[in-house]
Specification:
- It comes from Youngiibacter multivorans.
- Its EC number is 3.1.3.48.
- InterPro entries: LMW_PTPase (IPR050438), Ptyr_pPase (IPR023485), Ptyr_pPase_sf (IPR036196).
- Helix content is 45%, strand content 5%.
- It has 126 residues and is mainly α.
- The chain has a single domain, classed as Rossmann fold.
- It has a two-stranded parallel sheet with strand order 1-2.
- α1 packs across α6 and α2 crosses α6.
- The longest helix has 17 residues.
Length: 126
């Protein structure tokens, strides 16, 4: 969801979503797709992709949803361009992973991600 929200908000930048523990062939969870369709008309059911060294190396910044993911990415690839979304927004803590939860939880997480992205000045055109 974060990729779609980011790309809708910041048209002059581009985000791509990757997973740390993704199975090849996994698709966007149905509740996430419903929320994205309602909010943005998004209905592209993409296949999940596993994060790679080149993804991290080629990115200006890598945004993780949790501190644990940040530590794992930094440890695996030895890069210093990994931050959490809350860290970039001047906050602390993790964004819960709603996988397998009901649509209400997905809507709550969607709203939290959108609110945090709105607070990040790094991507705004001044």
């Amino acid at each position: 969801m974060a990729e779609v929200i980011f790309n809708e908000m910041y048209k002059n930048h581009h985000a791509e979503s990757r997973g740390l523990h993704t199975r090849h062939g996994d698709r966007i969870e149905a509740n996430a797709l419903r929320v994205l369709k309602r909010e943005y008309g998004f209905d592209e059911n993409r296949i999940a992709e596993q994060v790679t060294y080149s993804d991290i190396n080629e990115a200006d910044i890598v945004i993780a949803m949790t501190e644990a993911h940040k530590r794992e990415l930094s440890g695996l690839y030895g890069m210093d361009n990994v931050r959490t979304l809350k860290e970039l927004a001047g906050s602390k803590g993790d964004i819960i992973d709603p996988y397998g939860m009901d649509e209400f939880v997905y809507r709550r997480v969607f709203s939290e991600i959108r609110e945090l992205l709105e607070r990040i000045r790094l991507f705004r055109e001044e």
